[in-house]
Amino acid sequence: MIDNEVLDAGLEDADDDDFDVPETFDSLLPDNRYLDREVSWLAFNQRVLELAEDPAVPMLERANFLAIFASNLDEFFMVRVAGLKRRIITGLAVPTNVGRAPQDVLSDLSSEAHALQLRHAKAWADLVKPGLEERGIQIVSYDTLEDSERETLYEYFQGQVFPVLMPLAVDPAHPFPYISGLSLNLAIRIRNARTGRQEFARLKVPPMMPRFVEVSREGDRIRYLPLEDLISNNLDDLFPGMEILDHHTFRLTRNEDVVIEEDETENLIQALEAELLRRRFGPPIRLEVTDDMDDLTLGLLIDELDITEQEVYRLPGLLDLRALFELGKIDRPELRYPPHVPTTAVAFQPAEQNGRADFFAAIRASDVLVHHPYESFTTSVQAFLEQAAKDPHVLAIKQTLYRTSGDSPIVQALIDAAEAGKQVLALVEVKARFDEANNIVWARKLEKAGVHVVYGLVGLKTHCKLALVIREEGGMLRSYCHIGTGNYNPKTSRIYEDFGLFTNDEQVGRDLTRLFNELSGYAIEKKFKRLLVAPLHLRKGLLRLIDKERRNAEAGKPAGIRIKVNSMVDEQIIDAIYRASQAGVKVDIWVRGICSLKPGVAGMSENITVRSILGRYLEHSRIFSFENNGDPQVYIGSADMMHRNLDRRVEALVRVVAPNHVKELTSLFDLAMSDSTSSWHLGADGLWTRHSTRDDGAPLVDLQERTMSSVQRRRRARVAR
Length: 721
What we know:
Layout: H1 4-9, H2 37-53, H3 59-90, H4 102-134, E1 137-139, H5 147-161, E2 168-170, E3 184-192, E4 198-204, E5 212-218, E6 221-226, H6 227-232, E7 242-254, H7 268-279, E8 284-290, H8 295-305, E9 312-315, H9 359-365, E10 368-372, H10 378-390, E11 394-401, H11 409-419, E12 423-428, H12 436-448, E13 452-454, E14 461-462, E15 465-473, E16 476-484, E17 496-503, H13 506-519, E18 531-534, H14 538-554, E19 560-565, H15 571-582, E20 586-591, E21 608-612, E22 618-619, E23 622-626, E24 633-637, H16 643-647, E25 649-656, H17 659-673, E26 679-682, E27 688-691, H18 703-720
Parallel strand pairs: 1-6, 8-9, 11-12, 12-13, 14-25, 17-22, 19-20, 20-21
Antiparallel strand pairs: 2-4, 3-4, 3-7, 5-6, 7-8, 10-17, 11-15, 15-16, 16-17, 18-25, 19-23, 21-26, 23-24, 24-25, 26-27
């Protein structure tokens, strides 16, 4: 058992009222101390693109990174660019985090996004597509097909494609049709043979069908034809008696952000469902067209869609390279990363071969820190909840659900527990962006099974990753807790890097019990013992810990700060880090995506280093480590350093106290920040530079590969004992 006084010592002067959070440090720091968050996000997606361009990355993985880039950019337009446009249109054009007007930022983003999309298209056409062809995987054009292949494909077209196509004419009797967001479309110009009049028609490429139609397969050699190419070469069947003059592909992106006025609605689910319907009809914000589209067709689209020239993206080759995700079904292991099978965490490995782990006994013995996907989610988090659902001594289970998979065994475990007569509370965040509809479905399924379903607090998203199991043991109630950095999603757990802490510490149990009660009630207490909880306590707690390192440095004591997050944007946190750097504190920032902090600026941030690591797994965990005069304090949790996480979400960080866990997290940071590790380095000018090879051309250490090896060594050592 951990002494609570020891835990409280990390938050010295623990009363929030004793610590003033400064509004700003303008008098001490230069005005231009932040990097623009939107430009920084585009720089992150450029790093994804650089992986697709890297010849050292296996070829099918390069195609996958092209698809990830495309998907990321779609969301960026639907949310971030849409938000900037909304602020401009509504007159809420307050300055951005770099003090510039949204109009100016939007102009810069447009220029950068145009350049990136062209680079993306070029990477496909000049690098990845030829590379796949060399390895027997071809995306061909219709004019290269043999007559026999065309006949076979025509039969497929008639039987599988033609019946679902819906050509929509535009004439005095047919208004310009609605174009759905992210759909792939053909703009077709035709001439009426009887009247000689030119007409326009729009044809949507069916999104439910495979984008790549198999033409032939012989051993490892396989050829595909894009679906739109098949359709466009059989347009005569759709417009009999008409002359096809021209056809081009286009794609529209709409504003798909959802805004709910929770204070003004009595039923959150009904309001959200109505808003999801309106999302389909959001205003256009980007039009992608093939670069051979004629001016007449483009002019018609611009006028009818009410879009500006700046929002038009002329691109060579295929549009919507998200379709490259489909190549994932190709069975060519030599064109992928070497397979990695997650191991079961050492603490959860059965004592006997073919036996079953006793999760409760393992957690009683000591806290367990699990690192996904190197250590299995299925044999830890999922199996823990499944065991809890079946255990007759378990009385209650409480859990948050932010995102989960469509066939979630986690949800099923909660249903099984409720049907077994246990008290089950599920806090479902129905406002999780782009997962709203899915979460509504699961919320209703849980309710039908007898689970108590709540949707959190008005005005706040519940983003924390928490599970609490209450078990009767020897006439007493004992709490078993899981606090994680990632979602309870078995599918993404295979590709997202995350940590999860299992503990039966009494104080953590009391903290989670109070937090769940408040989430299903009306208010968040501002103080917990071993947790830092947003929106009331997390920012102040971190600022206090950062400032303590500054004071330690000024007093000549050991001081240091290490932070791993997805995004570093919040100005108060950044300013506190700058002040610590000015006092001589060495600061390491490990960020996957956005970083508004400028490292390496003389007199302000010369003691700050910022690195980014991207690879086969998505770095998703959040870690906060403070030297604390030689007694390190380390937290893990769900919060990024963004306004929304600190001010508008319920987030939770838990302090990691076991010395072996602190050592593990410290070693991970050592590896990530080492100059011998492959990573991107951020400069004071906001530019990211990739460092992937040594001076002699040899590759630098791959952190994720090295971590895999370390976890496997731990497992082998356990087996050897």
